[in-house]
Amino acid sequence: MSDELTVVTEFFLELDALKLINRRTYIDGGVRLENSAEHSWHLAMACWSLSRSLGLKLSEEKLLKLALVHDLGEIDAGDTFLYADNRDNAHTAERECVKRLEETQGNAISDLSALWEEQETGTSIETKLLKAVDRLLPFLHNISSQGKTWREQGIKKSQVLKAHAFIAEDFPELHSWMLGKLQLAVQEGWLSDA
Asked: Domains in the chain, start-ordered, CATH in brackets?
């Protein structure tokens, strides 16, 4: 059993590498950058809470699993900034990483790739909420940090609108709230009105 536990714990260290992937999102009002493991935890908690706030009929277990695997591919691929030009190709390297993790000795989660694929391409209510909250959290951090990432990267209002437009269809109340905050960001000069 000791050797088996050693293999399992080595897999845990593989997963721990997600803490080394820094995002471009500032947390704590702009004090430091968030890492992908922190984001994954925050995403899981926010999805769980929002699903209850909105009274959604969904599988919380599935939602939490999807949130937890969401950024695993970044261990090898790194984080791709929401407004990056190469964003469309990021999923290829991430998919390969998740497959590698699934095949890693010590991993007992046989559906790791299937879960990752579902969160990437699925259309279930769990997937839709996950995608909306995944966009909401960095948006919220930008509001909290007076648009620090937006200002550093030269992001425009039109880019933010385009990246978040899909939320209006499934979660119109959330989208409307975001539009109000977006207008505040423009008024305060945190985001250019272009």
From this structure: 2-187 (1.10.3210.10)
